Amino acid sequence: MKKMLIAMALLVNVYSAMAQDVAIIPQPNALKQTRQSFALSASTPIQLADENFKGAAVFLNGYLQNYYGFSLPVQNAASNKQSIVFSVQKSLSAGAYELTVANKAIEIKASDAEGARNAVATLLQLLPVAKQQPLTIAGVQVEDAPRFAYRGMHLDVSRHFYSVAQVKKYIDYLAYHKMNYFHWHLTDDQGWRIEIKKYPLLTQIGSKREGTIIGRYPGTGFDNKPYEGFYTQEQIKEVVAYATERSITVLPEIEMPGHSMAVLASYPQLSTTPNIAKKVSTTWGVFDKDNNVLNPSEETFTFLENVLLEVMELFPAKYIHIGGDECSKIWWEQSEFCKNLMKGKNIADAHALQSYFIQRMEKFVNSKGKQIIGWDEILEGGLAPNATVMSWRGVKGGIEAAKQKHDVIMTPGSHCYFDHKQIKNEDSVTIGGYTTTEKVYSFEPVPTELSADEAKYVLGAQGNVWTEYMNNFSKVEYMIFPRMSALSEVLWTQKKQKDYTNFKTRLAVQKQRYQLWGANYFKGNLETEK
Ligand code: ACM
User: Fold this and answer.
1) Residues 139 and 158 in one domain
2) Which of 75, 79, 133, 426 is 20–30 Å from 48 (CA)?
3) Ligand 1 in contact with 392 (CB < 6 A)?
């Protein structure tokens, strides 16, 4: 009797340990727990039926190696061992998957590489956080598919620079959350971060600044510490290959016509004021007092086309982000060249001149078979015919673009800016704003102003990480976790299944995973304080 009681107690323990571990973020569409379980060890083979799923196997093995210290053999042939079996199921939609964990096998079905990757992202969350051998995985049947096609995170590497290893880690974080777009903000006033072979000064001069202000803008002083960094084209290729293997599309952003001080420090002839000395910015903000705007001259267009030719070679994505935000118009309004250009081309004002600028660049990008994305300022003065709009100044730019039948990605400052503080009394320096995890979770990317037909233009949403006040990668982690976990559920989970209280229960387990990854994260109050 005593033995039986002990055995029963053990069973209950095992079962409750398993039950506690089934905490998946983002919440799947359908998840049924069974009483089966799978014992994963270093000898468990991965069986791939399709070359297309190789990346998902690499993703799984990378995770096991990084956090549990072993990886699994990959084979094509069937095995009579307990295996992880990937197979193709054509009827599943893009990114969708089915996952069954049973005593004898783990079965993963998907119609595309991203679906298999998403299945692995769920499987990783079924692994016990403790590094036991074998790893006991709770029995489940999962049927799952994304709500939105674009599920993104942005990272500004201009204000502060992160190593290739850190960028790869960031990409892993996206993949763990079933996200599929990495928006890489590669250029800005404070540093140009991508090697362009035709214009070596962009990195020789444009990737370096003399120092940085101390503290929050306007700063309490200047640190006088030279700051620099850029990615070689080989490194860019390495990151893109790493992301592609994990079903993440890398969206490069090359800012124009504003936010171009690093370009103008390198090639001052592209400015409307070429005789005024320029240097890579050492402070933050939007400039009216310094001219950081490209001149809409033929020389500038040739320069930008040559830059984009190299960029398009490096990034297989169908989109190129060309910025378009916060371009001060005073420099064009004061320029004789611009006044003559506007007169000659019948361009009404400086907003229309920006539209002319963006439309020219769009034509070039389209001629190479790619499409542009721009911040919502590209609506001003008339939207370029095929442009996708990233709505950041609230959702109204997104609404306007969708009504004009343009694709939209929502990134409103109110819910998607992870540079904002996340607790009222934040100790570390941030740009300001106040966006709690609860607020991120409450975000609905499809505004009620849109009809069902217009809503189809909302491709998804993205979290933005501007890094003025993130001078190390640990701070980036602190700012994204757990807000990015909340956003992943906004983007993936069906609206009717979202439940903040339930999310918080799962987040308790997710926090153990942040620790397993060695990631920093915000540990304070997740809700808005009055
Ligand atoms: C932006 O935050 N300037 C897009």
Assistant:
1) no
2) 133
3) yes
